[in-house]
Amino acid sequence: MDLNTITEVARRPSEHPAADWREGDAWLAGGTWLFSAEQPDLRRLIDLTALRWDPLVPGDKGLEIGATCTIRDLYAFACPGDWTAGPLITASCEAFLSSFKVWNAATVGGNICMSLPAGPMITLTVALEATYELWAPDGSTRTVEALAFVTGDHRNVLTPGEVLRRVRIPAHALRKRAAHRRFTLTRLGRSTVFLIGTQTPGGNDLLLTVTAGTTRPVQLAFDTLPDAPGLQQGIDAIPSDVWFADPNGTPDHRRHLTTYFAEEIRRELMDGDPS
Ligand SMILES: Cc1cc2nc3c(=O)[nH]c(=O)nc-3n(C[C@H](O)[C@H](O)[C@H](O)COP(=O)(O)OP(=O)(O)OC[C@H]3O[C@@H](n4cnc5c(N)ncnc54)[C@H](O)[C@@H]3O)c2cc1C
To answer: Does residue 239 share a domain with residue 152?
Structure first.
């Protein structure tokens, strides 16, 4: 859609784009959401894609994802063989309810900063214990845990003018065993719930990440694999106002699905090869 309040597009932002930020600005990444809704408060768009940040930098410490990495490029990434959790990347990209345009243009950072409950890049990076590097207009940078970034439906910890620069996924998380479950009302629909469980290789722990069914990601960490009632207790402890309501599911439906799939994940990780 035409954004008729925009008077300027910064096509060549400075290396540290946050330094130029002023009221009425918005970071432009893939634009798949920005151009899909009226933006009456915006005057200028700052094109982050022009900065040509490295999309994907694998290394000994793990995987660094530039905020402007597209979903398409992340999907095409071939993980090293010992990154056992690598298939979660594929599953999370496929969880996108996306048209051709969204698939090719939407970015990892844009998806995270949109902070929608069904944001699959949020699910992925929270489950893989990622951190986000944020740049502020005063030149400072800070690192926040992915789990702490989204605070509610379309809400996050970004302060005015802050930009998400990169996501870091640690190697130890990429080497974990993983199981996931997702439910949608229609085959290509938006996620009603999206859960990921991970476990240290050779260990008996469980890190369960609950998203899409909740307004913000919720994580349940168990040092040893809980039994079914223990897991149920953890889910029951999720505050009632955190369950999300939209046309894809009521809070009760989402709690029910979460309980059901969490138990499936527990069993899958319990039964699987512990090596
Ligand atoms: C048909 C369709 C289907 C969709 N399906 C889904 C879905 O299944 N799940 C879902 O979560 N969303 C969905 N969306 C919403 C949206 O397209 C995605 O969330 C997408 O990933 C946004 O990424 P983008 O790069 O296009 O962001 P943009 O539209 O460019 O930006 C989105 C917002 O994030 C801000 N932003 C972007 N990058 C940064 C950054 N690096 N730092 C700080 N702020 C930044 C922008 O200023 C803007 O406010 C859908 C949209 C459409 C049109």
So the answer is: no
